[in-house]
UniProtKB/TrEMBL annotation:
<feature type="region of interest" description="Disordered">
    <location>
        <begin position="402"/>
        <end position="421"/>
    </location>
</feature>
<dbReference type="InterPro" id="IPR029058">
    <property type="entry name" value="AB_hydrolase_fold"/>
</dbReference>
<feature type="active site" description="Charge relay system">
    <location>
        <position position="213"/>
    </location>
</feature>
<feature type="active site" description="Charge relay system">
    <location>
        <position position="341"/>
    </location>
</feature>
<keyword id="KW-0378">Hydrolase</keyword>
<feature type="region of interest" description="Disordered">
    <location>
        <begin position="1"/>
        <end position="35"/>
    </location>
</feature>
<dbReference type="InterPro" id="IPR012020">
    <property type="entry name" value="ABHD4"/>
</dbReference>
<dbReference type="InterPro" id="IPR000073">
    <property type="entry name" value="AB_hydrolase_1"/>
</dbReference>
<dbReference type="Pfam" id="PF00561">
    <property type="entry name" value="Abhydrolase_1"/>
</dbReference>
<keyword id="KW-0719">Serine esterase</keyword>
<protein>
    <recommendedName>
        <fullName>AB hydrolase-1 domain-containing protein</fullName>
    </recommendedName>
</protein>
<dbReference type="GO" id="GO:0034338">
    <property type="term" value="F:short-chain carboxylesterase activity"/>
</dbReference>
<feature type="active site" description="Charge relay system">
    <location>
        <position position="370"/>
    </location>
</feature>
<dbReference type="InterPro" id="IPR000952">
    <property type="entry name" value="AB_hydrolase_4_CS"/>
</dbReference>
<comment type="similarity">
    <text>Belongs to the AB hydrolase superfamily. AB hydrolase 4 family.</text>
</comment>
<dbReference type="GO" id="GO:0047372">
    <property type="term" value="F:monoacylglycerol lipase activity"/>
</dbReference>
<feature type="compositionally biased region" description="Polar residues">
    <location>
        <begin position="1"/>
        <end position="11"/>
    </location>
</feature>
Length: 421
């Protein structure tokens, strides 16, 4: 089990618990409707102090409601660890087990002479049929294939005979940096080239993608940009900050400053390894500010917003938010968020656009922190609770069972008690 010696970039990218039975407090079912709101099914436990409510909503809610078998089980956050959102976030980052998958690296040169690294599971070329579905994984800010949540998802998908590849962005996961441009929340061109490359290698396979945190933001932006022409058959977004202006506001509050400083150190470390690429670059770049960044905002001011042509950091955050892209998504998209996420605030979730899009479904858990989700049978050291849910969605798409179900409302909204259906 890998245990970092300090709070690091895993914070943003990166025993079974018995189910209590209360026969005298069985769930009660209430159907609410009004002239101003669409009908919604509210399932709650009459023993309210034991209730942990999950939210299931979106234009595609009715299509996938029966697919998520894992939602029939209680959502049981692990005791003590999940009492506090920061504790859950940090525990998952420091103590979640690392499966230790053997990977083979492929370096891909991009059109602008940049470099990204694709990590494939060793032996899959001979072990899997050529037409096996391919799953592209996008870690969070400064994250890579060595992160625990990435490897657990990789193992889960691989056990279902999926071919999996981790997309390590420029400078991340020890991927080389060969130009004076890193990557950003707005930059989708590298992902576009990766998807096209994977598609050319496996032309008979269906392609899917999962993104976490900043990787999720990039993925959803890509889906919106590609719209009807998207080469992916389905996608999953986890812990997406969605609205980067709101996320930035909260990033500078209270304990969140710890995450901010940790990520800034990780970004500065990557930058310093490649500082010679920026020697004498001039213009609006502030090399000293980036090299000594005390916050992610410092780094974005010194390097990111200049590299990608934004007038200011606020301009960069506003125009890089994936919340603007949801309305243009034309493939099945599962979004999973935690209501208490300290880094991807729930108030930034574009609820209305998700409800209005017939391709989108949103699951919001009451707890989970950021990339934590220390719940379920594998808690506290095993895979996140979300992995089962994600595979149910992807397997359903791959097996071709998606159907357009008739619904009494254009945009449904369901609340599911932790005691299940």
């Amino acid at each position: 089990m890998a245990r970092p010696t300090s709070i690091n970039s895993r914070l943003l990218h990166s025993h079974s618990h018995s189910h209590h039975s209360h026969p005298q407090n069985s769930p009660s079912f209430q159907l609410h409707s009004s002239k101003k709101h669409h009908p919604s099914l509210h399932i709650t436990n009459t023993f309210t102090t034991m209730s942990q409510t999950l939210e299931l909503t979106g234009g595609a809610r009715d299509t996938y409601l029966s697919v998520f078998k894992s939602l029939n089980l209680p959502y049981n956050p692990f005791p003590i660890i999940c009492w506090n959102r920061h504790l859950e976030t940090i525990f998952a980052s420091f103590y979640r087990s690392l499966p230790g998958v053997k990977l083979r690296r492929e370096c891909l040169r991009t059109a602008d002479d940049g470099s990204v690294s694709l990590d494939w599971v060793v032996g899959d070329d001979s072990a899997l049929p050529a037409e096996s579905p391919v799953l592209i994984l996008l870690p969070g800010l400064t994250g890579g294939s060595g992160d625990t949540y990435v490897q657990h998802m990789l193992v889960r998908a691989r056990s279902n005979k999926w071919r999996v590849v981790v997309f390590n962005s420029r400078g991340c996961g020890n991927s080389p940096v060969t130009t004076c441009q890193f990557y950003s929340a707005s930059f989708t061109e590298d992902l576009r080239e990766v998807v096209n490359h994977v598609k050319s290698r496996f032309p008979s396979s269906n392609l899917y993608a999962i993104g976490w945190s900043l990787g999720a933001n990039i993925l959803v932006r890509y889906l919106g940009e590609e719209s009807d022409n998207c080469s992916l058959r389905g996608a999953v977004s986890l812990c997406n900050p969605f609205n980067l202006v709101i996320a930035d506001e909260d990033f500078h509050k209270g304990f969140n400053n710890i995450y901010d400083k940790a990520l800034a150190r990780s970004l500065a470390k990557i930058f310093k390894r490649h500082a010679l690429l920026f020697e004498g670059i001039g213009g609006e770049y502030n090399i000293q500010l980036a090299a000594n960044a005390k916050s992610v905002r410092d780094f974005d001011e010194g390097i990111t917003r200049v590299s990608f042509g934004f007038k200011s950091v606020d301009d960069y955050y506003y125009n890089s938010s994936s919340s603007k892209s949801i309305k243009d998504v034309r493939i099945p998209l599962l979004c999973v968020q935690a209501a208490n996420d300290p880094i991807a605030p729930a108030r930034g979730i574009p609820h209305d656009d998700i409800k209005d899009n017939p391709n989108c479904v949103l699951v919001v858990t009451p707890k989970g922190g950021h990339l934590g989700w220390v719940a379920g049978d594998e808690a506290p050291l095993g895979a996140p609770w979300t992995d089962t849910l994600v595979m149910e969605f992807l397997e359903h798409l791959e097996n071709g069972r998606t159907k357009d179900l008739e619904s009494s409302s254009a945009s449904g909204h369901t609340m599911i008690s932790s005691t299940g259906f």
